[in-house]
């Protein structure tokens, strides 16, 4: 018997979960599902890969299927707001899988595609709407949707919304929602802005915190390779000679850089494609599907495009460029440590990356081992190593002291003049 039976979910939902291979709830599902079925507000601290989508969608599906109503035109009973098109699509795909046979009206809306089909679907009235902020605001402004019938609001990846500059849009959308509703807020981290927002929109919420960021880091076998910038591609090709790396996700800084890497990989007869904002939504979905189905061995992505990548059995993550924000490092390597599984991550670091590497190590609370037994190993200067040893805060103090001395010398010179 499935452990999901303990939640009193509809039999058809249990059957769908069994078909998808869900044997037992993840920690966040165990915590959240009973709370949400009872209609309480919830503040969830959890990153992607913890089973979060099922945690919030199963109660919504179950409650709506048990209590069907006539939905008025241009309205929706629930709104799930998420930052990226890829994540919105994947949430919708999972919801449709869980709700098969329950006759619920669902729709996903995002930019980059025609809006008329979205308008027509909303006009019929929806049980569940998954949306990204930009397109939803557009539909609100043109009067193609209202929220008079809204019962449940889910804000997913709240910290990503903040990082991507959507926070004002999110606040504008929330202002349009009815005050009386069930509200769920999920975020991997809790910066001050998110804490304030949570206080404003949640009513007596239950707080659930699952899998701190350091736990994901602990699940991944991490290494860093010191090298010259010109040796990155030769090293990448050398690593990919290992046949065990069957499904590889590479992160780079720019979409231009992603396309260059793909072209070089193709020259080496390695099946690869890129995922970034310079491609249309249809193309991005096709690329992601090919990667899921193992028709591509390598996917090269930028941070923004990679939000929401939910692909099983990624054997290796490579940071071709280190992320500037340490939090993105956790999101990146977590692609290969899904739902408590272990994984492997390799980072390339040139000498100028030492400061970024130190910040990442401080963030995850561990030193990433350096692999010296590799053909392109580069010994960094003593000055760089000293910066790494100083650590984030001490390094700042040293820089500030140096700047202070420079300003003092400049001031003395100006006085002499």
From TrEMBL:
Q: Which SMART domains is this protein grouped with?
A: DEXDc, HELICc
Question: Which UniProt keywords are present, listed alphabetically?
Answer: ATP-binding, Helicase, Hydrolase, Nucleotide-binding
Helicase C-terminal domain: which residues?
A: 219-391
Report motif location: Q motif: 2-30
Tell me if Cytoplasm is a UniProt keyword of this record.
no
Q: Which family does it belong to?
A: Belongs to the DEAD box helicase family.
Q: Which PROSITE patterns match?
A: HELICASE_ATP_BIND_1, HELICASE_CTER, Q_MOTIF
List every stretch annotated Disordered: 389-417
Q: Key word Ion transport present in the record? A: no
- Signal peptide region: none
Residue intervals of the DEAD-box RNA helicase Q domain: 2-30
Q: Where is the Helicase ATP-binding domain?
A: 33-208
Q: What name goes with this protein?
A: DEAD/DEAH box family ATP-dependent RNA helicase
